[in-house]
Every structure is written in structure tokens, then in C-alpha cells.
């Protein structure tokens, strides 16, 4: 029991340290500041989500479900995409200050802001529906799978239908509900 607690504490401490280093690399002005590059910034945010899920999963001890790591990776990927949602409302300022977000990157390549937003919404909804299929194939009740799938599509609909600030606010809220 003591060795198990030490192993869990070591794993938890290591993951917390990795999250600290990622956070430092993401936003510290005198360090790397990865958030200035939308690809690296999104990857750091997705990795942070993945590490948080790993920390949570290790607290239950073995055996973890065979679906745990693929789902954690999928949620990390979804969080990478969702992290670009927050840039939708800041597009004008980011464009003027030449801050490369996904929206600025795509608009500079000839895409409209609305079309780029459709793409982000579609990718996010698709990533969020995949776990629903996994739940279905693992034997979860069909009505619960349909409920989770409905919640998964809401962020995409909100991102397309609402003005930027409201879209981001309610889209992120629905993603939080989805994770819960």
C-alpha cells in the first residue's frame, strides 16, 4: 500500500511538473511563448488536457479501461480544436497585430472568417461525436449515447449561429457540460 501511494504521488508530481513546464512555455514572455504560434499553442493546450485526464485516471489505480488512453487522446485532440474557438471573438485585434491564430492563418490564405468558423465548428463536433460511437460499442444504453451525441453537436451549432462573443461563451459552456 505504501509503495502504491508513493508511485501514485510520484506520477502525480511528475504530471504536475509537466503541466507547469507546458504552462511556462506557453505564456511566459521571457521563455518560448508557444501561444504565439497557433499550432504549437493548440498542441500545448491539448497536451494539458490529456495530462489532466491522465492524472485523474491514475487516481483510480489499475486496471484502467482499455478505452481510457484512446479517449484521453481524443479529448486532448478535441481540446486542441476547441482552444482555437476562443480566437474567433478576437480575430480583428489578432489580425491587426499580426498574431497568428488559426482564424488569421486561414483568412490570410483566402478563406473567409465565416468559412473558417464553419470548419472549426465541424471539426469540433466530429471529434466530440466519436466517443459517442465508442460508448455505443462498449454497451452503453442507446438513449444515453443519443443524449451525449446531442450535447456534442451543440457547440458546433452555437459557433455557427451566434455572434462571436456569445458563440465562444456558450460554445465553451456546452463543451464543459459535455466533458462532465
Q: What portion of residues belong to β-strands? A: under 5%
Biggest β-sheet description: none
Order of helices and strands: HHHHHHHH
Q: How many helical elements?
A: 8
Mean pLDDT: 76
The secondary structure category is: mainly alpha
Calculate the terminal CA-CA distance, rounded to whole Å: 30 Å
Count of beta strands: 0
How much helix is in the residues? over 70%
User: What is the global morphology?
Assistant: flat
Low-confidence stretches: none
Radius of gyration (CA) equals: 18 Å
Features of the shown structure:
single chain; 0% strand; 8 helices; mainly alpha; 77% helix; 180 residues
Q: Strands, helices and their partners?
A:
Blueprint: H1 2-27, H2 38-58, H3 68-85, H4 91-96, H5 102-108, H6 113-137, H7 142-161, H8 164-179
Amino acid at each position: 500500500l505504501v509503495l502504491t501511494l508513493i508511485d501514485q504521488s510520484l506520477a502525480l508530481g511528475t504530471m504536475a511538473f509537466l503541466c507547469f513546464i507546458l504552462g511556462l512555455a506557453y505564456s511566459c514572455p521571457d521563455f518560448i511563448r508557444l501561444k504565439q504560434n497557433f499550432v504549437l499553442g493548440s498542441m500545448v493546450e491539448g497536451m494539458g488536457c490529456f495530462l489532466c485526464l491522465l492524472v485523474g485516471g491514475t487516481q483510480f489505480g489499475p486496471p484502467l479501461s482499455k478505452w481510457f488512453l484512446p479517449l484521453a487522446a481524443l479529448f486532448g485532440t478535441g481540446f486542441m480544436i476547441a482552444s482555437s474557438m476562443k480566437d474567433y471573438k478576437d480575430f480583428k485585434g489578432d489580425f491587426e497585430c499580426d498574431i497568428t491564430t488559426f482564424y488569421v492563418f486561414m483568412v490570410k490564405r483566402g478563406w473567409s472568417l465565416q468559412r473558417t468558423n464553419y470548419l472549426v465548428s465541424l471539426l469540433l463536433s466530429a471529434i466530440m461525436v466519436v466517443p459517442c460511437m465508442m460508448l455505443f460499442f462498449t454497451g452503453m444504453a442507446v438513449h444515453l449515447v443519443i443524449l451525449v451525441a446531442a450535447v456534442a453537436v451543440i457547440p458546433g451549432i452555437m459557433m455557427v449561429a451566434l455572434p462571436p462573443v456569445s458563440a465562444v461563451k456558450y460554445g465553451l459552456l456546452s463543451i464543459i457540460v459535455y466533458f462532465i
